Amino acid sequence: MMVGVEGSGKTTLLYQLFLGKEVSTIPTYGFNCQTITIPITNNTQGDKINSTIKFNLWDLGGSRTDQWQYYAQGTVGVVYVVDCSDESEIENARDCLWRLFEDTLNTLKDAVLLVYANKQDRLNALSVTEVKERLELEARGEGRRWHIQGCSATTGDGILEGMTWMATQVKG
Ligand SMILES: Nc1nc2c(ncn2[C@@H]2O[C@H](COP(=O)(O)OP(=O)(O)OP(=O)(O)O)[C@@H](O)[C@H]2O)c(=O)[nH]1
Ligand SMILES: [Mg+2]
Asked: Which of this chain's residues are annotated to bind GTP (predicted)?
């Protein structure tokens, strides 16, 4: 499942992954879902093994926080998108992230967490390190496998890197 406050860039990110290009979006009131194929390369004993993994990526509109519990069923990984160019919303983004795990305590117990520090193409964007601190990832993410990836959903920079991390986590 892909979550994040309204306008953080979830739908743009979904279609960047699915189509490999920027699309124009309108606010999502329900959800979008696409199947994404991620290539992975494992180096085992000097042999390169190339494979792929498929994710059904559910992009939930930022206003639909009431439906988290429903979509959390069967979720192996949470993709959390943050707009790094809007500093005034960063505390809200932090609260939204940790409320998600409180509201779905048992369902997302073993889910891994990928945070996309999005809109890095904007000049005023907070750095990945700063966002990591402001979200309190190190303190509150303890006991969970998590990763933060800087990206731009409009240019595509960093998007595949993030999902590749997710793929290797899920494949074990
Ligand atoms: N500059 C820049 N703009 C972005 C980026 N990602 C998204 N945007 C813009 O941010 C706006 C909101 O993007 P959406 O993808 O619709 O955001 P969302 O998270 O799906 O929003 P909701 O559906 O309302 O929850 C759009 O105008 C996007 O073009 C980015 O990486 N850089
Ligand atoms: Mg959307």
From this structure: 4-11, 62, 118-121
